Amino acid sequence: MSVSTAAKIAGLEAIQKKGWLRAHKWLLLRRFSQISILSLFLIGPLFGIWIVKGNMSSSLTLDVLSLTDPFVFVQSLLSGHMVETTAVVGALIVFGFYALLGGRVYCAWVCPINIVTDIADWFYRKLNIKSPVHFSKNNRYALLAAILAVTIVSGIMVWELVNPVTMLQRELVFAMGFSWVLILAIFIVDAFISRRAWCGRFCPMGAFYSLLGTVSFIRVNALNRGACNDCMDCYVVCPEPQVIKPVLKKGDELNPVILAGNCTNCGRCIDVCSEDVFSLGMRSAKFTDIAK
Amino acid sequence: MTEPTDKTLQSRRRFLENISRAAGGAVLYGIGLGLYSQQATSLPSQSIRPPGVADEGDFLSACVRCGLCVRDCPYDTLKLSRLGDDVALGTPYFDARKIPCEMCEDVPCVKACPTGALDPALQDIDDARMGLAVLIDQEACIAFQGLRCEVCFNVCPLANKAISLNRTHNQRTGKHALIIPVVHSDACTGCGKCEHACILEEAAIKVLPSRLAKGELGRHYRLGWQEKQKAGESLVTPDLPHQYNLPEGTRYDYEGEGLIPAPKNNSEDINDTPFNKSAIDRLNEGIN
């Protein structure tokens, strides 16, 4: 299977059939979401318009709505601190939000690092690079387990001493330190050394949110998989291709909904599919829903 | 029981392989993180935490690095540590020599904290203990040279409580006074206005984290005069009144007569002193 040749033209068929805009609908929506969320944080410090204060670890919107990242909340709890009610409520709101929309929706629709790693992957595909190094997809869970264990033992939030995700978010909104060096490193590794290494193999925040994704309500499905022409374009663009495999197998008895927690609900598979196999729907979606 | 087929053996082996690999990876990451956290959490002495931080370890388990305290600081005193700074990544601190804490009465930084990393129990900024000012260089401080300066005293928000001026003799000139600023740890909040205002090229008075600035007496130490005060008065046999070695047959009259002949064995006369019935005599008398 020559994925690399297919890679260069992934989505071409969809563009021809559906038009460029429709073949990039979810990608554009996602970029819009990522950039507008970041902008909300940035217009305060840049222009003095304070809609949102703080950063993505914890924020205060319009002096009313307090939001806290559940991962940082869990780390704080494990390190032995019971946070104030403000942060508890904030973490519960965010937790509920992702439980509804899909755990790793955070990765695809909010996290600014996603823009970096998406561009890195674009380079990877366009330049037809072969990754010399491979890491296991389960590596992130080993890292997550280590972080939680060391947090409990040491009594401090060890991961926040190095976390490049919150670091970039923070330094974009406050003052830029050397976090850009780390981000550049992530880009170089992802593009030239090990494909999708950061978001797909290392990031423990993604691993944390993927656990939430195993129960979340909104999921991508392949209800129309009968129309699949095996072009493989979805596999090429998907940041977690292993999640697609189970739902594209033929046979009516097999579940057509992507239940794997690592699906980020990015919707790129919906974009590049010329046959409209994929759609977003509920976790409980059944074939009978379209067989009417 | 069925014999395990090649396939199940293979998948069992793969499963064990994966498990041990994951466990090994987790242990490696854990060691790395643990070691790194050791050195990444040492706070440089010129970096002062915002009000309401009692213990650095507790703070590092509570602060989520959101920067809301920084945003609500009206004087831009607080900063978030960036990658490359010496302070634990993303946590708030200030450098008193650059911008000191202005000790806002409503303590907005503490109010902004969503997690309680800055202790919400801190209502009165005078109770804050961000650090402790220390007149660290007596060789450079011009007050010790006999010059009038007192800038640190004058800018101190709690002047006369946190910093007082003590007058001592100027031994160099022999006829002037030294007016020395003295910091009192029971009132100093560590705001750093003294360090900021110090007129020297490099401040002679500096705010240090309390752990560096303060000594601590061994727990087994008891200061006699304090214990005495606590108990009301003497805890052991009271001090002996001073005994004069007077010539035999004389006594000292405290009323103004001075040394006068004393009749022998006249107990009334012997007891005619301001210390009559001294404690040791009373003890010597036994129970009568």
Task: Outline the secondary-structure elements.
The complex is a heterodimer of chains A (292) and B (288).
Chain A: H1 3-8, H2 12-18, H3 25-47, E1 52-55, E2 58-61, E3 65-68, H4 70-78, H5 85-101, H6 105-110, H7 113-126, H8 139-154, H9 164-173, H10 179-193, H11 197-202, H12 204-213, E4 218-221, H13 233-237, H14 245-248, H15 268-272, E5 279-282
Antiparallel strand pairs in A: 1-2, 2-3, 4-5
Chain B: H1 6-40, H2 56-62, H3 68-72, E1 79-80, E2 92-93, H4 108-112, E3 132-135, H5 151-155, E4 163-170, E5 176-183, H6 193-197, E6 205-208, H7 210-213, H8 224-230, E7 250-253, E8 258-261, H9 267-270, H10 279-285
Antiparallel strand pairs in B: 1-2, 3-6, 4-5, 7-8
Can you offer a commentary on this structure?
The complex is a heterodimer of chains A (292) and B (288). Chain A has 292 residues and is mainly alpha-helical. Chain A has 15 helices and five strands. Chain A has helices at 3-8, 12-18, 25-47, 70-78, 85-101, 105-110, 113-126, 139-154, 164-173, 179-193, 197-202, 204-213, 233-237, 245-248, 268-272, and strands at 52-55, 58-61, 65-68, 218-221, 279-282. In chain A, strands 1-2-3 form a three-stranded antiparallel beta sheet. Chain A has a two-stranded antiparallel sheet with strand order 4-5. In chain A, β1 (52-55) and β2 (58-61) form a beta hairpin. Chain A is globular, with a radius of gyration of 20 Å. Chain B has 288 residues and is an alpha+beta fold. Helix content of chain B is 29%, strand content 12%. Chain B has ten helices and eight strands. Chain B has helices spanning 6-40, 56-62, 68-72, 108-112, 151-155, 193-197, 210-213, 224-230, 267-270, 279-285, and strands at residues 79-80, 92-93, 132-135, 163-170, 176-183, 205-208, 250-253, 258-261. Chain B has a two-stranded antiparallel sheet. A two-stranded antiparallel sheet of chain B has the order 3-6. Chain B has a two-stranded antiparallel sheet with strand order 4-5. In chain B, a hairpin with a 4-residue loop joins β7 and β8 (258-261). The longest helix of chain B is centred in the first third of the chain and has 35 residues, at 6-40. The radius of gyration of chain B is 34 Å and the shape is extended. The mean pLDDT of chain B is 84. The chains are: A mainly alpha (292), B alpha+beta (288). At the A-B interface, β1, β2, α4, α5 and α8 of A face α1, α2, α3 and β1 of B.
